[in-house]
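Q: Is it fine to ask for two folds in a single conversation?
A: Yes, each is treated on its own. Send the first.
Q: Here.
A: Result:
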Amino acid sequence: MEYQTFLKQLLEATIKNSASDLHISEGHSPILRINRELIHLKGEALTAAEAEGISFALMSDEQIENFKKNKEIDFSYDFEGRARFRVNVFYQVGTVSAALRLVPEKIRTMEELRLPVRLHQFCEYAQGFVLVVGPSSHGKSTTLAAMVDEINHTRASHIITIEDPIEYIFKDDKSMINQRELHLDTLSFAQALKSTFREDPDVIMVGEMRDPETMATAITAAETGHLVFATLHTNSAAQTIHRIVDNFNGDQQSQIRAQLASSLIGIISQRLVPSTDGKVVPACEIMLNTSAISNLIRDNKIYEIPLVIETSSESGMVSLNRSLSELVRKGLVTLENASKFSNNPRELRKLI
């Protein structure tokens, strides 16, 4: 098998079928994820040698060496200037596998993504901390890109992104954008974030907060006059605050809560729900840092936040169930699918 040629055919099939992901693994024919469903491409199951050959065709010699040493690797792959892929190559049962996420060339607007209108207001702040959270593969990076690009098109700012790897490529409009990739342009998120203080940014986007040092530096950046966007793999606004605070030692937690209470703008918790038109539509819990929320964070009464979100719709907050119920009422998703993504399906049925 000529691996470069076969790889090209697979990437073209991914683009042609508007798939979100391509999976390469021994014992399976190549698999596409289309509208959240896994679809096997026709053909023989790949051997271990074929899966390795296709995966290695994606990488440079240096990346292959790094992969063999660390047993896994993340990187971005440009396909002939036509599309970009976020790639993870890994070992499973001693054989090489790969997962490729197609990153659309065009950065879609919030309207095109069918995101809530309320999200526009997060782009209007000059400083503060905005978090987009949710499970893996539920559109967090795409939502962040839409918000950052809205700033790019509406005001003159210096925007710095720190990503692993770089997914969407921004094109400067009114803003100047510098994109830094982990391992290629910097050794760590925390180190890159500390460097931003000497790089005169207005807006900072952190692809993912993975450790206490990155979290603390991001919060400090938001406190010191920057607008900071970041993501976390959490399921709700309250869980997000718990996760951040719990990353620190007990004697540091009160300080982190105080910093969050003063710097946080809001948290968007997002799910991509299969829609009735065969695509997906986002359901979003939206928490805004009102005085009530700020006091709960400072006083360590985070468990009360869900109730405040539920009862503060006049302030612009939206619970996940209320977002799901609106999608059902509008006929965009079925009750069955909405219930699968609800934290409380019984309450969802009452709302509807």
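Q: Second one now.
A: Result:
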Amino acid sequence: MKRSARTLLLLAALFTLTGCAGAPTFITPNSSISADQAGLYRILIVLSILVFVFVEAWLVYNIVRFRRRDGDDSLPKQVYGNNRLEIIWTALPLLLVGVLFWLTVSTVNAVSAPAPLADDLNLQVVGHQWWWEFDYPDLGILTANELHVPAGKTVQITLFSNDVIHSFWIPQLSGKVDVIPGQTNHLWFKADSLGEFHGQCAEFCGLNHANMRIKVVVESQADFEAWVANQQKPPAAPQTDLQKKGYDLVTGGICNSCHTLGEHKSEKESNPQTPAGPGQAGIELAARGVGPNLTHLMSRSVFAGATYELNETNLHRWLQDNQSMKPGNDMSVNPSASDIEALIAYLTTLK
């Protein structure tokens, strides 16, 4: 029985650890923010281990040293009223808490947002159930799920929510910041090196909260400028009759009520008289569309909240039965087989 219990315990531990495989973590940072957070975390872990080992060792020592022995009912020497000991075990925890407080305040100051500079990359991020919208207002780019930024450049992000409370978190690049309806929040980061980094909504926001993910592509300045140039191009024009039918479905048919195609205006441009009250910009920004902008859809590698790889096969599955892939999402249309064929023919040209 004991062997079986140990085996089950080991299997349960291994099963639990498999859930951590490949998960993004701030312990492998790619920005000064995550590096400072990881440094504080390691110090806290080390100090906690030292305190635990000392306390447990002292406890075991006293249990063994002063255990009751046969024929000996005497009590060990009592230390009540020993001023020196009471000062020591009061002062040490206070000193430890003071050190932790100082380290925490230093880290908070280190990761605080720097003053915005003229050459910073400005982003507006809108949280939807269950996907992220990325607006580059200075560049005229509106995209979703996959975020592109250049390495070594400070990124200033303004956060809005279109529905419920979300939380924007890219562990290797930034800390968590809540995304709250009617409220404007901010965060910043500067990626140190090139690569792909993954994030997650960190606030339970409904049925598909776990599938509200983020993909960040950190690239060189030259590659980023090439990406920007492509994103600023107009959407591809249909070349065949089938593509023309798909184009009509996107711009004036079943897709038009939720998705946009082509140029978009920033909140300030579209509503120049809008007062700048708290959250007002986010309300206007979030109201532009229910679904992602499709202008350069196939330039992204992921879709549906960065849950699925974006390719023709998955896109076909999505158009056939998106609710089986992401239950509860807002896309409720059921296009016919011929409409799906036309949509695929046109959407796959949007690169």
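Q: Anything structural to flag on that second result?
A: Two points. The first helix runs from residue 2 to 18. DSSP finds nine helices and twelve strands in the chain.
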